[in-house]
Specification:
18% of the residues lie in helices and 25% in strands. Strand 30 and strand 31 form a beta hairpin. It is α/β, with parallel strands linked by helices and 597 residues long. The chain contains eight helices and 34 strands.
C-alpha cells in the first residue's frame, strides 16, 4: 500500500520552521561574530578570556559578572554592560573607536551600551548614528575627547546619555533640545564650556540633568516648565548671577561653587519634594529662607560660604529627615535652633563663622554680622506681574539706598527718629508703617504720630522674646498697661523682672502665613539702631495651634515716657531754635535709613 503524501500545508509549516531556525542561527552567529570582534578590540580582562570563535554561538548564555553582562532577547543582543572595577588590562595600542563602533553597528537590536572605565580614547565616531535602536548610552570614566557628536540626534529612541569623567570639550550643542525622548543627561567632569542652550527647556521628559565640573558660564536657562525634572546638578561651574527658574518637583538641587549672587528664589520654600539642597560656595546675599530647615523631606542642606543674613530662633522646627546641615561662614544671628544642637549623633551640623549667641562652634561677635549685612547690596529679582508689565522690586541696601520710597518697598517698618531739645532730648516715631498684609508687614512709613524720650544707645542685643515673658511684663496685656491703640493694634507698657521698661506693639495677622513670611522683616527691623532711632529690642511670634502659622506678632521697643511731637509743639511752645534742632534730628534719622550714615 502506497504511503500518503504529506499535506502541502504541513510541508509549508516544516519549511517555515526550518528557515526561521536557520535564519535565527545565522543572525545569532553574525551578532556573536561581531561581539567576538568587540571583545578583541576592548581586550576584556574578565568573562571572555576563554572565549574563542568556536564558542561565539553561546554569547547570550555568558554568565554575568561584575565586569561583563550581556542581555539577549529572542536570540538578539540587546544590552552590553562592561566595567573594569580593578583597572586590570588596557585597550591594545592599535585601538580604534571607529572599528569598535563599526562592530557595534552589526548589533541592530542593541538598546543599552555601557562601556565604563574601559580606557577608551579619542572622539566618538559618526558611526554611532547607526545604532538606531539605542536607548541608553553610558561611556563614563574613559579618556574620550572632542565634541558631543551630532549623530546622536539620529538616535530617535535615545533616552539616557551618560558621558561623565571624560575630556569632552566645546559647547553643549543646542540640538540637544531636539532629542525629545531624553530623560537623563549627565556630562559631569569634562571640559565643556560656553553658556547652556535655551533648548534644554524643550526636554519635557527630562528627569536628570547633571552638568557639574565643567566650565559653563552665564545664566541658566528657564527650566521651570520641566515638570518631570527631579535631579539638577550644575555644581563647580561659573554660572550666574541669577538663581535659575525651576519647577518645584525637584528632589536634588546642587548649585555648589558657581557665581550665583542676589538671593534664593522666593518659591524655593514650596519645593516640598526637595531632599538635597547644596548652594554652598557662591556669592548669595540676602535673607536665608529659614523654612528650608523644615521642608518635609529635606535631608541635606548646605548654604556654607555665602553672605546670607537672618536671625535664627531657638524654637524653630526642623524636618524629620534632616541629617546634614552646614550653615558655616554666613552672617546669621540669633540662637541656634534647638533641633540643630548636639544630642543626635546621626545628625551632622556645621555653623561656625556666623554670629550666633548660643553656639559652641567658633562665632564672630554680633557687630561683625550686623556691619557686614549692612554693607551687602541686595538686588532682588524682578518678578512677573499679573498685568501688562513686570513689577519692579527696588534694588538697594541699607547703606546704599538713595530714596525713602525704596526703603518702603523693601518693607522697613516703624521708622523712628530722635530729635534734640535744649533741656531734654526726645525721639520721634514715624508710625503707621505696619500693615497686616504679610507681603508689606513693615511697608509704608509715612505719618509721625508719637514721640518718646531719647535713652542711651547701649542697648541689649536684639532677641526673640517668649510669649510668657511679655504676658508677665504686661500683666497678661492688661488694659491698665495700654498706652496706645490704633488701627494696626494696641501698644502696651511692659516691665520686666529687672525693672526695665519696654513698649510692646501687638499685631494681629489677617492672613495665615508661615514664619518665613515675616522673618526677613523683623531681621531688617533689628538693624535699625542709631542715635536718632528708637530701637527694636526683639519680637515674639504667636502661632495658630492647628497649622503653626503666625497668628500675632509682638514687637518690643525701648520705652521712652514722652508725649507726641504734636503735644510738645502745641503745649510746650518750643522756641524756633528748638524747632530747628528737632527738624535736624528727624532728618538725621531719615538720612540713616536712606544711606546708613
Amino acid at each position: 500500500m502506497a504511503k500518503k503524501p504529506l499535506p502541502i500545508s504541513l510541508v509549508l509549516v516544516f519549511f517555515t520552521v526550518f528557515m526561521q531556525t536557520r535564519l535565527s542561527n545565522q543572525l545569532q552567529e553574525s551578532q556573536a561574530q561581531a561581539f567576538f570582534i568587540i571583545q578583541q578590540i576592548l581586550n576584556f580582562p574578565r568573562g571572555l578570556n576563554s572565549l574563542d570563535q568556536r564558542q561565539i554561538i553561546d554569547v547570550c548564555n555568558i554568565e554575568p559578572t561584575p565586569y561583563l553582562t550581556v542581555v539577549c532577547y529572542e536570540e538578539n543582543i540587546t544590552q552590553i554592560h562592561t566595567s573594569w572595577l580593578d583597572r586590570y588590562g588596557a585597550v591594545p595600542g592599535n585601538f580604534s573607536m571607529e572599528a569598535l563602533f563599526e562592530a557595534f553597528s552589526a548589533l541592530p537590536n542593541l538598546k543599552v551600551l555601557s562601556l565604563v572605565s574601559q580606557g577608551l580614547w579619542g572622539p566618538i565616531p559618526s558611526t554611532i548614528g547607526n545604532l538606531t535602536s539605542l536607548e541608553i548610552l553610558n561611556l563614563s570614566s574613559n579618556y574620550l575627547n572632542g565634541t558631543i557628536p551630532v549623530e546622536l540626534l539620529a538616535l530617535k529612541n535615545l533616552q539616557t546619555i551618560i558621558l561623565d569623567h571624560n575630556n569632552f570639550s566645546g559647547y553643549l550643542p543646542s540640538w540637544i533640545g531636539s532629542v525629545s525622548g531624553l530623560t537623563a543627561l549627565s556630562l559631569k567632569n569634562n571640559s565643556l564650556n560656553g553658556s547652556l542652550p535655551n533648548s534644554l527647556s524643550r526636554l519635557e521628559d527630562l528627569r536628570i540633568l547633571q552638568l557639574s565640573m565643567n566650565h559653563f558660564y552665564g545664566e541658566v536657562p528657564d527650566l521651570s516648565n520641566l515638570t518631570n525634572l527631579q535631579v539638577l546638578d550644575l555644581g563647580y561651574n561659573f554660572l550666574g548671577p541669577k538663581f535659575p527658574a525651576l519647577h518645584n518637583t525637584l528632589v536634588t538641587l546642587i548649585l555648589r561653587k558657581n557665581k550665583l549672587r542676589f538671593g534664593l528664589t522666593e518659591n524655593l520654600t514650596s519645593f516640598y519634594q526637595l531632599q538635597k539642597l547644596d548652594v554652598s560656595s557662591n556669592e548669595f546675599v540676602g535673607p536665608f529662607p529659614i523654612s528650608l530647615l523644615s521642608l518635609p523631606l529635606i535631608g541635606y542642606l548646605n548654604i556654607a560660604g555665602n553672605k546670607f543674613h537672618g536671625m535664627l530662633l531657638d524654637n524653630m522646627t526642623c524636618g524629620a529627615h534632616l541629617g546634614f546641615v552646614d550653615l558655616s561662614s554666613n552672617y546669621l544671628t540669633g540662637d541656634l535652633p534647638s533641633c540643630l544642637k548636639p544630642g543626635n549623633e546621626s545628625k551632622i551640623v556645621q555653623y561656625r563663622g556666623n554670629c550666633l549667641t548660643n553656639a559652641d562652634q567658633r562665632q564672630h561677635p554680633y557687630r561683625f554680622c550686623h556691619n557686614e549685612a549692612l554693607a551687602v547690596k541686595i538686588v532682588p529679582h524682578k518678578r512677573k506681574g499679573k498685568g501688562s508689565g513686570s513689577k519692579v522690586v527696588v534694588a538697594m541696601s541699607i547703606v546704599g539706598a538713595t530714596s525713602l520710597a525704596g526703603l518702603m518697598v523693601l518693607g522697613v517698618g516703624l521708622l523712628f527718629s530722635r530729635h534734640a531739645f535744649k533741656k531734654t532730648r526726645t525721639r520721634v516715631i514715624l508710625e503707621k508703617a505696619i500693615t497686616t498684609n504679610p507681603s508689606r508687614l513693615f511697608a509704608d512709613a509715612r505719618e509721625i504720630c508719637q514721640m518718646v524720650k531719647l535713652g542711651p544707645l547701649g542697648l541689649p542685643a536684639y532677641r526673640n522674646f517668649l510669649l510668657d515673658e511679655l504676658k508677665e511684663a504686661t500683666a497678661n496685656f492688661s488694659r491698665a498697661n495700654l498706652i496706645g491703640e490704633g488701627s494696626y493694634g494696641p501698644v502696651y507698657k511692659g516691665r520686666f523682672s529687672n525693672d526695665s521698661l519696654v513698649a510692646i506693639r501687638s499685631l494681629k495677622m489677617r492672613k495665615r502665613r508661615g514664619i518665613q513670611a515675616y522673618t526677613q522683616h523683623v531681621e531688617l527691623l533689628s538693624k535699625l539702631r542709631h542715635t536718632h532711632l528708637v530701637s527694636a529690642l526683639g519680637h515674639c511670634f504667636e502661632y495658630n495651634t492647628e497649622d503653626s502659622t503666625v497668628s500675632r506678632i509682638y514687637l518690643v521697643f525701648e520705652y521712652i515716657p514722652s508725649g507726641t511731637l504734636r503735644d510738645f509743639i502745641s503745649r510746650r511752645r518750643p522756641t524756633w531754635l528748638q524747632r530747628m534742632t528737632t527738624a535736624i534730628e528727624v532728618a538725621k534719622g531719615i538720612q540713616f535709613l536712606q544711606t546708613g550714615i
